[in-house]
Design a protein that fits this description.
- The chain is an alpha+beta fold.
- The protein is 39% helix and 14% strand.
- Strands 1-2 form a two-stranded antiparallel sheet. A two-stranded antiparallel sheet has the order 3-4.
- The chain is elongated and about 65 Å long.
- Bound molecules: zinc ion (ZN) (2 copies).
- One zinc ion binds next to loops.
Length: 118
């Protein structure tokens, strides 16, 4: 539940008015979902899957958030790095500049020019 006037999140169930500003113009989750879902679609089209996933989490739609993150993985899984310690190749999908090798467990850095491809 959210106040349409001041935008504060109202935690009590079925409030008659906003405890912060006294406004009776309240938005229920049901009312804001279509707005947020259209925002999410825009983010997804722009390739901002992580941001879209966070919005899904705000709506407590965790399965959708998960789906979004999987899309994100799919997008960047083409980028893989060879471990300098054991030579195993593994894809990475985060913007972290270091990854942990799945085979030998050692950490290695990702060159900035590779990160820029993400
Ligand atoms: Zn308010
Ligand atoms: Zn390794």
């Amino acid at each position: 539940m959210k106040c349409a006037n001041c935008g504060e999140e109202i935690l009590q169930k079925n409030p008659q008015k906003c405890p912060y500003c006294g406004s009776t113009d309240l938005l229920s989750m049901k009312d804001i979902i279509p707005t947020v879902v259209s925002e999410i679609d825009t983010l997804k089209k722009a390739g901002k899957f992580e941001e879209a996933a966070l919005k899904y989490e705000e709506l407590e739609m965790y399965d959708k958030a998960e789906e979004c993150r999987n899309l994100n993985m799919g997008k960047v899984s083409a980028i893989s790095m060879k471990c300098p310690h054991c030579g195993a190749t593994q894809p990475f999908s985060s913007k972290n500049d270091a990854v942990k090798c799945k085979r030998c467990g050692k950490n290695y850095g990702i060159p900035k020019k590779v990160l820029d491809l993400l």
